[in-house]
Amino acid sequence: MTDTQLACRGVAVSFSGHQVLRNISLTTTPGRVHALLGPNGAGKSTLMSVLLGLIQPDAGEVTLMGQPFTRDALRHVGASINDPAFYSHLSARNNLRVHTTLLGLPDSEADRVLQLVGLQGAGKKKAGTFSTGMKGRLALAQALIGEPEVLILDEPQNGLDPEGIAQLRAYLRDYARAGRTVLVSSHQLGEVLHMADDATVIAGGDVRFAGELAELGPNLEESFFRLTAGGRK
Q1: Can you give the pTM of this predicted structure?
Q2: What range does the domain containing 224 cover?
């Protein structure tokens, strides 16, 4: 196991002359859940897209499994970012089978991850009939195929009811405790307190905080506001 399975250094991204990210560095630790926090428009989803090779940064580098980013290294990564997209005419199980087949895994892997996210009873239903919360669960199931060493999840709790959020929290913590890396973006600060060990806070295109979540103190909302208010430093 490498010391750092996922990291980036000095990442900068701009769109049409507008700089979204400036000199962003982030380091995760295997065995711990890392929260990526920031107000709407801070660039959290953009950074996750950079980490996955979906956006080429103007500057900086990404490392996966301790090595410079390569497409081949993505086999170690499971991800769910932005709005999950599925084949609406296919069942949930068959949507997952598309991915298990591409990875050379048995059909039973689709059943395994459906059970993990509580969708074992909905595997035969067409994905196009799913609610927002069920689509979120299906996206998580897809990310978990093959038990990747790194999970990158953008707002995975969206659309989940309180019971579903509690189950997600427990599962992600257990998943990380097995020596894997979990990076989660979230705007639900109260939930982050119960889920994450470490955090990176970005606002105005800059890193405002990076360290153990406990360092932000008992009032996370107050600390978050203090760190993010006023745009760029």
Answers
A1: 0.91
A2: 6-85+149-228
